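Batch 3, record 17
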Amino acid sequence: MTITVYVPNDSSAVSLGADRVAKAIAAEAEQRGISINLIRNGSFGLYWLEPLVEVATEQGRVGYGPVQASDVSSLFDANFLQGGTHALSLGIVEDLPYLKKQQRLTFARIGKTSPTDLNDYLANDGYRGLANALAISQADIVKAVTDSGLRGRGGAAFPTGIKWNTVLNTQAEQKYIICNADEGDSGTFSDRMVMEGDPFVLIEGMTIAGIAVGASQGYIYLRVEYPHAHIALNTAIANAYQAGYLGEDIQGSGKTFHLEVRLGAGAYICGEETSLMESLEGKRGLVRFKPPLPAISGLFGKPTVVNNVISLASVPIILDKGGDYYRDFGMGRSRGTLPLQLAGNIKQAGLVELAFGLTLRELLYDFGGGSASGRPIKAVQVGGPLGAYLPESQFDTPLDYEAFAAQWTVLGHGGVVVFDDTVDMAKMAKYSMEFCAIESCGKCTPCRIGSTRGYEVMDEIINGHNVEQNTKLLRDLCNTLLNGSLCALGGMTPYPVLSALNHFPKDFGIDEPAQVA
Amino acid sequence: MTAAVNTQALVNDITSALKDKPGALLPILHGIQDAIGYVPPDCVPDIAKALSLSRAEVHGVISFYHYFRTTPPGQHTIYLCRAESCQALGSEDLETYAKEKLGIDFHETTADGKFSLEPVYCLGNCACSPAMQIGHDIYGRVSADSFDAALAELQQAELEPSA
Ligand SMILES: Cc1cc2nc3c(=O)[nH]c(=O)nc-3n(C[C@H](O)[C@H](O)[C@H](O)COP(=O)(O)O)c2cc1C
Ligand code: SF4
Ligand code: FES
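Prediction for the assembled complex:
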């Protein structure tokens, strides 16, 4: 029997040599006259073990990693095709604690399947949510999403069902579904993993959204920095069209949904939903005033659902298993699961999908294994470049939207970036101001001018000039940004800046404990 | 045919193929940059005309987006990630090294026209920081050594006759 070997084609795995490993395995097998079935799967997100090679055995999928091309001939010598033991043996991959302890709903298939193979998707519960959605009314689809308690995973955590309901109830000849795949937040990569590792789940989620609200056209606004995701999405979309899962009369239902990928062009602000729509319309990505809400007057002035990749990719399982099933995970008003992304200076960086409620400390140590450098963890930035830095005293915060908000921190898109004690937090605060200045859309003065001013003030502070006075100036600038910005780029840049200042005053050259903002 | 005529023909082909899409400007600019490596300023009037926009509007869009460039890039554009996760693992040192090695700053191209260097704010490869992208190829846990190796490999690939 032909043996199946898996080598991920996830771009992070590829960045560590997965393509070379796949090539070496194919060549070595041919040279030894062994016939293998080499599948390029998604990544499970255990990145310190990538490239993670798996072999299908009777006991399950046996893993080896991290594998380099130079390890391949010794893997063959060790009879890895029969699950033989090797220095890189990991055992049954599903049983690895990092994976086993997770609650993978949205990521259920990722790593297991061949991403753009529709048959593989169908064989692994794919399109069951759509089948259910096609059998019920539009209002009932929206109700299932509302009942699930799903809140937007792009950052603002707005209830998805409420947004859909507004679009459903707004009459218009044309409505749109937009998937926000701009994933500009540093330290985040869950959207990328979904698009590369299970693009059909996003396509299915968008199709369900389109049918639910009566939108016949969808756009995926994808950041240009993700060429691998672009290819995977376009391939999967073509396959879905061919099999009657996109286009007119989807699966004989009489419903129409068209889907197209559009590329961004390296502007962080275009992840903000109104800027994104301007960009899709072919304009500069200037943020729009709200109201009107996009749900009422969005893309080309039409009612539009804008949702993050993870929000939309969570819809199929909700329609498959029911809103209650999803809602039973989580705590408080944070229902379901959140795919967390562990990055930065952490031993076991990767994707951890869990029900809300675990503490940050558990995530950092039980999953992450502490810092990569072995030095103490000094600060953790959660929620992207506009998220606050948490000191060790806040590590026991449960991962829950409200618990985070209660101490002036944000969970956002679930990115967790770890810094050891060599980090200089004043430099990080300066970088936040610089980032805001580079990425500001320029519409409001506090953000456009204030960020550049903030950068200069941070320079002064770092150089030890008039620290007391400049710190006061920095706080004033932050207040102006907080109160006078149209969107969260200007409005939240004070989060990383002030949290750095308040928790790590010494790095700013201040000895006494700072007052809290 | 001169290069200029070639370019103009290409721009017109791309523009007329895409101009009827809703919100066609970004797809057109991408099409042009994919084909020629940049968006030549002298093609702005043609694009503006095809889309019934003013030149200022087209120019405004090109200048708004960091990704679009109006000058020819080097043979290879190196995107170095400057964002937080990569900083946590030493991207600043890598940046200094790369700039010294290439003898250029960000937004510049080496004198031999081989490499351009651009900053990027996250490549979604944060679990393998520091990260870098060259063309469509992505690199993780980049060190000074692996930076050199990646460049050497690109130079090597050019020396080999294309199969
Ligand atoms: C500066 C800025 C950048 C943003 N970037 C993204 C992004 O990259 N991806 C995303 O899904 N949402 C992003 N958002 C949030 C969106 O505006 C919007 O809330 C989200 O796409 C709605 O989808 P959701 O409800 O499913 O989260 C950003 C917001 C701001 C203010
Ligand atoms: S806060 Fe900044 S990015 Fe947001 S609208 Fe104002 S200028 Fe634009
Ligand atoms: S922060 Fe550098 S790849 Fe994400």
